[in-house]
Amino acid sequence: MPELPEVETVRRGLLPVMERAVITKADIRRPDLRWPFPPDMATRLTGARILGLRRRSKYILADLDTGETLLIHLGMSGRMLISGGTVGDFHFNHPAPEKHDHVVLNFDNGARVTFNDPRRFGAMDLLNTDTAEEHKLLKVLGPEPFGNEFNETYLAEKIATKTAPMKSVLLDQRIVAGLGNIYVCEILFRTGISPRKQAKKLRQRDIAALVPAIRDVLSEAIEAGGSTLKDHRQADGDLGYFQHSFKVYGREGEPCVNTECSAKIERISQSGRSTFYCPTCQR
Prior knowledge:
By secondary structure, the chain is of the alpha+beta class. It contains six helices and twelve strands. Strand 11 and strand 12 (about 275) form a beta hairpin.
């Protein structure tokens, strides 16, 4: 599942062709993805100008001049592909439609954005812009990790009584939005915190280290175009490469990257997900 860096990378790739552009034709090629599309979606999108393209957690939000916002979730295999437009120094011609091209947006600048999703775990919805934050998918989310609301004091209060492992707490979207399995493993290694440790037992200095580490890891991943493990590609089709910087994720049995450590990376299962960590460096 794409995490915050992958979604932010896609958003940035879409900005040059989508922001301020008018949707001249919306081609909806099936009635649903993970859930049914909203009624008359093609009609409601056609003729709308995109005023801004933003991200909330793992969702892309396109604010329209019609007073509605198009919500996009990539799911496990969803990709937003640009054609007929110019991204940087490259021009992409319109390809022939493919089997899993489910939503196609044509713009007045000649660009086309296609939502391709073989597994159909992605989603799209149209929300009232003024009340978008009250949508069922958004209202439960905690603060953005880059926002001022997410700070040492906030995190300390949220975990003060949590008996769950710290790995599980950081994956809780109600506490902080956008974190996923890959980056939480990397964040915990960077801060020397065991993924098994009960959240309420964290020392204040550990909590103080977590907030900047979260921001640093996510920022580095965004700059690297996200992590390409299986399905993720950027909007221009390029692969992300942050996976080459992994210190623990996917490295079971390999030596710890800390040259002063002789341990090997271990993998355990937590809540049905693989957790990678160094048993010596993370306490």
